[in-house]
Amino acid sequence: MKNKILFVLLLLLKGQLTYAQVLYSENFNNLTPGNVGTDDTGIVPGKGGWYTTSHTYNIPYTGNNDFKIIAEPGRGNVLQVTGPAVSGGRNLIALKNLGLLWNNRTAGNNVLKIEYDFFTGNTVFSSNSNSFWNQLDFVGGTVPLTIYYANLPNLIRVSCSTCTPPPHGVRDIFQNIAVPRNTWLKFELYLDYANQISYFTIPSLGVSGTSGWFSSSNFSETRLIVETIASVQAVHKFDNFVISAVDTVPLSTQDFISSKFNVFPNPINDVVTITNNESISIEQIQVFDISGKSVKTHSFTNVNEVQLNIENLASGSYLLQIKTNKGIAVKKIVKK
């Protein structure tokens, strides 16, 4: 049910008390099955306040039938978006004017949380292309954060195109994380304004990642884009949208990847070993001093144990940013 009334919930997450203020909630059960709207130009909102747009690049096409509320066995109603029957075409459904809700959040709730359920579906493409995007828009027209799903290889990628580089993270939160087919997955995105870190997690798969930050602070809308490649219509389903303002990111999200790595010895004289027991591939290690300056970078090819020589660094505390195939881990070290 759609709620635009601000209210406060108490959530107990693994011993961490988090105050969640729900700004928007929609599970589609109160919306009548059928087409979402009658306007595919994105001007007139349809059911639930969703705006629908079809991009077919001057090819005549009416896309209203591509946006539907349908009954899903065992779930109630869900949102289904089909790519247009035009090669290279794109269908877009958007929630707009969310900035007012975010700007009226309770003081101290400076983490924006966006969560929803996504059905991965079957193979529908004959090429390695993105069949679904979720873009977060901010005032000023910037689109800093995008969730991509490539249907043929079944890979999720989460990218922050305008994010600042480390120390807080890299521009890609995830790079090609494999997900199962025909499965409902919950996506959770946290934008921590106080600490300027972006987090993304798929709890059921136990994967999390972090990224850098972007300059814009005024959240305005979220857009779901389903596109068609090779004249095949991609079909994706969504459910249980919740947008909240919370006071902190759950520790389980922040610490998941970092907890998988061992760093020793610590404190260190010259060489530090970075390893894990879960075959998480290390792609890059970047070392930052306490001012946030990058002082050392090394790239690797699919290794899960690294010996890093830091003998040339001055004594003091440093952060290791470990970029992996599962996301980003951060570990603190001390150079003697």
UniProtKB/TrEMBL annotation:
Per the UniProt entry, the signal peptide is 1-20
InterPro entries xref list = Secre_tail (IPR026444)
The organism's place on the tree of life at top rank: Bacteria
- What are the record keywords, sorted? Signal
The answer to whether UniProt assigns keyword Transcription regulation to this entry is: no
Q: Which residues form the Secretion system C-terminal sorting domain?
A: 263-334
What is the official name of this protein in its record? T9SS C-terminal target domain-containing protein
Name the species this protein comes from. Answer: Paenimyroides viscosum
Lineage, opening ranks: Bacteria, Pseudomonadati, Bacteroidota, Flavobacteriia, Flavobacteriales
